[in-house]
Amino acid sequence: MKNTLRQVFHSSKFVAGFIIFVAILLMMFIYPLINPGNPLQQIGVGTFAKPGTYVSLYDATKSPVSTFRLPDAAEKRLGTSLSEEDKVAMVEWFEAVGADISDLDTNDTEKMLEMWDEYYDPSAKPKGMIRAKILYYGRLDKSLKEMGGSDSISIADKNEEGELEETKKILDTDYVNTKDVANVKTLPLGTDNFGRDVLKELVSATGTSIRIGLIAGIVATLIGLTFGLLAGYVGGILDDIIMFVTNIFTVIPGFVLLILISYSIGQEQRGAAVVAIVIGFTSWTWTARSVRSQVISLRNRDHVNLSKLSGHSLVRIVLTDILPYIASYVVMAFILQVSSGILSEAQLSLLGLGPKTTEVPTLGLMMNWAMLYSAHTNGSWWAYFPVILTITLISFSLNLMNTGLDQVFNPTLRD
Amino acid sequence: MSEARVTKDFTNAPLCLSGKGVTKIFGFGNKKTVAVDHVDFEFHEGEFVSIVGESGSGKTTLSKMLLGLSNATEGEIFFQGKPRDISSGRKKREYWKGIQAIFQDPFSSFNTFQKIDTVLLDCIHMRGGKNLSKEEKFNMMTEACHFVNLEFKELTNKYPFELSGGQMQRLMIARIFLLKPKILLADEPTSMVDACSRATILDMLLNLRDEIGMTVIFITHDIGLAYYISDTVYIMEHGKFVEYGKADEVILNPKAAYTKRLISDVPKIHEEWDLSTVDLMA
């Protein structure tokens, strides 16, 4: 036993998979300690806030001000206010009026604006340009002119007579230290369509999905193992009956069965555990078949005969003389079942047949939400890409562990 | 053992295991194979019987039926004169108190996940020694190991794969020593061990037979070996007994062509194969 474990941990593939999986598990346990709270709490109003650090504007205006005269401040300001779309439109205009754009650097904002001043003429009507487009350039020109603008912003409030009175003037050289700002919120993965912290949701969803995978794996392995052992060891009519049932389950496409069962259970009854059990119930057939064939080759071995001659009961023979010999195989099958359980949940949830949406997030549900709210078409990659990456990593690590185990227990595969 | 063999006459001894028309057929229709074809046999108490035949002659199939590990297609087997009843699990367990086996391959005979202690303890428990004290059990196991020239103290808490093939096969005999069955079925117990261990193991089998007075059914393909250790020899060809009788009579004066061929196939060390000058136990 000790020796086997040592061998297993000498397999580089197993260790790599194990490290990835343990890292995911650690993340699952540690992150909620750092960032406690309900993962489904809607903190943001509006959908899909970008990943990044959010500073409270209200608090910032009330924080102590330091003055810095940074040489590149104005340029940077222009840089961030000029969007990529604007730049593309500007280049299009330059092309239309026949300017030389061969050595134009679109990142050089100052040069771009200089060129704009030179080449933009509101009365010009470039050939082939529709009127709407010309009006668009008028608006663009207006907003570009405003960009330079004044070097201060005034904050005004109503005084006792109900007239606006300037209470604070913010200069373009004013800075506040983020440490002085009371409310700064970092959202490493932004928010989703409901305004929920994606990272917090992702960590919680990973936990739920792994739990679903484990339950599905346990259910599938237990059913498969029991049927396989009985059919293989007892044989005869019992074998025929069990194999008949197994074959029926094998020929019906598992996923279709899964969809039908999930649909018939109904949204209200479908908790995470129920979904897990349903997944387990539809994926035991291959375990049963392969356990059966291994048991058949084992049951006529001499040590089993000797155990029979020693007067051991059927249960004891199965548990002590058959099971230990197929244990490594069963462990490997279990790992694969967990992996496929997680994937099945993701598939089901993507179709809207996953667990009830109000209780827990799962990886599949997160993808379903991202899809329903068109995260992929409006460029909100943070709502679905980390989820896909997590599913891939879990599945990858489990399969890697399985390959490593296979090499240890199946000497012909060793390199 | 170097003196001339002494064979006793067992024809009048009480019957231990006998069979009438025992047949085993595998498959059906075109794929039908008759492994054992209507054989009759009578094994007496205390007798050392050899069943000799080449590979595929049905020896092992017959031994499985004798052990009750597989059912005969036809015919009946009698245990101590009465028809054998192994219809239920309990009756089978009762039967196995009377008949035990040593298998061909010592390496696959043991469950590699169980310690040697478990194997021997099971034997004590089977003999109704469940309530004995730890010390008594330990003494019994030590005695059994001593009988086969093993030290139980060195074996305890070890796994079977830590032993050599010869040691494992001797441990098998220690198991039989503890179980003290009426019949021992030894299915080529020496074919997988080296020549030295082979002599030791055969010697132990003979001693054990004398010690507890059991019947030994020795299955082998080596007719020379059968001649030296057995009282009675059954020659098996294609699932049938072609010849049987006292070892001397069958081997020194063979009647069936198959027996003659088996004898002529025994490797000769000198030009002439003189059975009486070969000292098996040397």
SSE topology sketch:
The complex is a heterodimer of chains A (415) and B (282).
Chain A: H1 2-10, H2 12-34, E1 52-55, H3 57-62, E2 66-67, H4 73-81, H5 84-96, H6 109-119, H7 131-148, E3 152-158, E4 164-171, E5 174-175, E6 184-187, H8 198-234, H9 236-251, H10 254-265, H11 272-281, H12 285-299, H13 302-309, H14 314-350, H15 363-372, H16 385-409
Antiparallel strand pairs in A: 1-6, 2-5, 3-4
Chain B: E1 15-26, E2 33-44, E3 48-52, H1 59-67, E4 74-79, E5 82-83, H2 89-96, E6 99-102, H3 106-109, H4 116-126, H5 134-147, H6 152-155, H7 165-179, E7 183-187, H8 195-212, E8 215-220, H9 223-229, E9 232-237, E10 240-246, H10 247-252, H11 257-264
Parallel strand pairs in B: 3-8, 3-9, 6-7, 7-8
Antiparallel strand pairs in B: 1-2, 1-4, 4-5, 9-10
- The CATH topology of the largest domain in chain A turns out to be MetI-like fold
Helix content of chain A: 55-70%
Question: What fold name goes in the CATH topology slot of the largest domain in chain B?
Answer: Rossmann fold
Shape of chain B: globular
The CATH architecture classification of the largest domain in chain B is: 3-Layer(aba) Sandwich
CATH class of the largest domain in chain B: Alpha Beta
Biggest sheet statistics of chain B: 6 strands, mixed
Number of strands of chain B: 10
Rg calc of chain B? 19 Å
> Numbering strands along the chain, what is their spatial order in the largest sheet of chain B?
6-7-8-3-9-10
Write a brief structural summary.
The complex is a heterodimer of chains A (415) and B (282). Chain A has 415 residues and is mostly helical.
Structure description:
The complex is a heterodimer of chains A (415) and B (282). By secondary structure, chain A is mostly helical. Chain A folds into three domains: 2-44 and 193-413, Orthogonal Bundle (MetI-like fold); 52-69 and 151-187, no CATH class; 73-148, no CATH class. In chain A, 62% of the residues lie in helices and 7% in strands. Chain A has helices at residues 2-10, 12-34, 57-62, 73-81, 84-96, 109-119, 131-148, 198-234, 236-251, 254-265, 272-281, 285-299, 302-309, 314-350, 363-372, 385-409, and strands spanning 52-55, 66-67, 152-158, 164-171, 174-175, 184-187. In chain A, the strands form three sheets. Chain A has a two-stranded antiparallel ribbon. In chain A, β3 and β4 form a beta hairpin. In chain A, α8 (198-234) runs parallel beside α11 (272-281). The radius of gyration of chain A is 32 Å and the shape is elongated. The model of chain A has no long low-confidence stretch (mean pLDDT 87). Chain B is of the alpha/beta class and 282 residues long. Chain B folds into two domains: 11-98 and 182-266, P-loop containing nucleotide triphosphate hydrolases (Rossmann fold, 3-Layer(aba) Sandwich), CATH 3.40.50; 106-180, no CATH class. Helix content of chain B is 37%, strand content 23%. Chain B has helices at 59-67, 89-96, 106-109, 116-126, 134-147, 152-155, 165-179, 195-212, 223-229, 247-252, 257-264, and strands at 15-26, 33-44, 48-52, 74-79, 82-83, 99-102, 183-187, 215-220, 232-237, 240-246. A six-stranded mixed beta sheet of chain B has the order 6-7-8-3-9-10, with helices on both faces. In chain B, strands 2-1-4-5 form a four-stranded antiparallel beta sheet, with helices on one face. In chain B, β9 and β10 form a beta hairpin. The longest helix of chain B has 18 residues, at 195-212. The model of chain B has no long low-confidence stretch (mean pLDDT 84).
